[in-house]
Design brief:
This protein is 63% helix and 6% strand. The chain has helices at 11-25, 44-56, 60-85, 88-99, 102-107, 113-132, 138-156, 159-175, 183-207, 211-225, 238-245, 253-258, 268-290, 303-316, 321-344, 350-375, 379-404, 410-416, 436-440, 454-457, 469-476, 488-497, 521-525; strands at residues 32-33, 36-37, 425-429, 445-447, 466-467, 482-487, 504-508, 512-516. α1 packs across α2 (44-56).
């Protein structure tokens, strides 16, 4: 179902459009969004998207296949790591827990960087702990960790090196594992990271001297330390995100973490491994909680280590009855929320949303009760039933999302694209509709919306398509055919704000409307 759902707003639509413009322009170093330089993120996700587009065509399915493949690789490496450190069964359960955690499952179906960076950080840190616990393969795994770290920097910037080194440094200090630091080898690892990460940064700086200051100072540092860029949330913001995003496995998390810090271990190696995974999750959680800028997907990198901790706990449990009592209570609360959702939340299609939510509520209740039934005498069966419930729940959510999505303008572009001519102008009215350019396969005019493009607009000529009210007046009254997509509230305010202009509607969704500057023959028939 990768290609069946409209683009999510805003990030997925932005990244898809950047990849589309890179695919069309064949400029593989400077990212552009609607023709404006866009330096907020590195280039690896776009490169992967372009690569898949060259094979399968530039469409939603091919772009989303990037994260779908990475998500599968993340599950496979989670299995491999847990199998090497524990056993085959722990590996299977851990991989299935990761795959059926709701936030991981949903982001695996989206073209964004949060799933990709989570998988690359997991590759880095899983490789490190495998090498740290086996002297015979240390150099190999540390080399793999260095390669993954280099790609992580290319995926989402300094986060790709800061988070792994922070976790590794704390763990080495805690257990006095200074033997792992061999300066001759560190030079090799550092060279590998730099060989992967530096060339694009160097080339894009040569082509765009303004890049370095914005990318490292205004974006990276400001994003962490300042609320000026938006997304300002309280410290506890990620707690409910983890509770819902890790469902249904969240019920096992408290005990899984407690079992990571027991009073005594029979084997020091087991202690080091469990505390490593706990530090991995806790330090990343604290890092993003301290950060001023917060978004739901940012916390996803903690899911791979939590999957292994939970997998190891439930694999060894002989009685999970208490946990499944909690799951049943939680599930009945969520089922109630499903029945009440559309009464308090506006959606694109209320009837279809309710249809899917009622099925989801049934799956949650039946799955949790089935797990409870097996939890005391056959805990393995309880876990397998919960894996099945998580998989069904994820698929149903993916199916339900289009019916909930009020932000997409896909229905309007489906009206517009068949009659759009090359010389026509299309305006995003007082708002940047992130998915508009992608659906129309072209750059669009943007009226009175500058924030996302503020930096790029300073360094290139763009007055032809980044327009204001004065330019709108001239364009709308010209002989050229002009179309605009706007918020319905803006449309109702048109007679007062633009008294001398005429707006002819073509179609609308629950939130937006498509209009043109004059009555057209196609519109009469439409």
């Amino acid at each position: 179902m990768l290609g069946t759902r409209p683009l999510s707003i805003p990030d997925e639509a932005n990244y898809a459009e950047i990849a589309r413009e890179m695919f069309v322009s064949k400029d593989y170093f400077t990212p552009y969004l609607n023709g404006i330089k866009f330096f907020e993120k590195p280039v690896l996700l776009y490169w992967l998207g372009v690569g898949f587009a060259k094979i399968f065509g530039c469409n939603l399915w091919s772009l989303r296949s990037v994260n779908a493949m990475l998500a599968l690789m993340g599950c496979i490496f989670t299995y491999f790591t847990a199998k090497k450190l524990y056993d085959h069964k722990t590996g299977i359960i851990s991989a299935c827990i990761l795959a059926t955690s709701m936030l991981y499952f949903i982001l695996a179906h989206m073209y964004t960087m949060d799933l990709s960076i989570s998988v690359l950080i997991a590759f880095t840190l899983f490789s490190f702990i495998l090498g740290a616990t086996d002297t015979h393969t240390r150099f190999f795994y540390f080399t793999m960790a260095s390669i993954a770290m280099g790609f992580a920097i290319l995926m989402k910037g300094l986060m790709g090196i800061v988070l792994p080194l922070m976790i590794i440094g704390v763990w080495i200090t805690l257990f006095q594992e200074w033997r792992l630091i061999r300066f001759k080898e560190i030079g090799v690892y550092f060279a590998i990271v730099m060989l992967i990460a530096v060339p694009w940064h160097w080339i894009v700086t040569l082509q765009n001297p303004e890049f370095l200051h914005f990318y490292f100072v205004e974006h990276h540092l400001s994003r962490f330390s300042s609320g000026d860029i938006g997304h300002l949330q309280p410290f506890w913001y990620y707690i409910p995100i983890i509770i819902m995003g890790l469902f249904p496995w969240i019920i096992f998390l408290p005990k899984a973490l407690l079992h990571s810090f027991p009073r005594s271990f029979h084997h020091l190696k087991a202690k080091k491994i469990k505390i490593f995974f706990s530090l991995y999750a806790i330090l990343i959680f604290l890092f993003f909680s301290i950060s001023k800028a917060k978004l739901i997907p940012y916390v996803l990198p903690i899911f791979p280590p939590l999957a292994i901790l939970i997998g190891n706990y439930v694999k060894n449990a002989v009685n999970l009855k208490k946990e499944y009592i909690v799951l049943c209570i939680f599930s009945f609360i969520l089922a109630g929320a499903c029945f009440l959702f559309t009464k308090y939340w506006q959606v694109a299609d209320r009837d279809l949303t309710n249809f899917y939510l009622y099925i989801i509520a049934s799956v949650i209740i039946v799955g949790s009760l089935l797990g409870y039934f097996f939890s005391k005498k056959k805990p393995d069966y309880a876990i397998y039933s919960t894996i099945a419930m998580g998989a069904m729940l994820g698929l149903l959510l993916i199916k339900a999302l289009p019916a909930m999505d009020r932000l997409t303008i896909l229905p309007l572009t489906q009206i517009l694209k068949p009659i759009l001519q090359e010389e026509d102008e299309v305006i995003a009215f007082n708002h940047h509709y992130q998915d508009l350019s992608f659906y129309l396969d072209r750059r669009v005019d943007i009226l009175n919306s500058r924030k996302l493009f503020a930096f790029g607009m300073q360094h290139q000529k763009n007055h032809d398509w980044m327009i204001d009210d004065r330019q709108l007046n001239a364009l709308w009254q010209s002989h050229q055919r002009v179309f605009a997509i706007m918020d319905i509230e803006d449309y109702h305010a048109m007679p007062e704000r633009y008294q001398h202009l005429h707006f002819y509607p073509w179609g609308q969704t629950s939130k937006n409307i498509l209009v043109s500057n004059r009555l057209l023959e196609e519109q009469k028939s439409h």
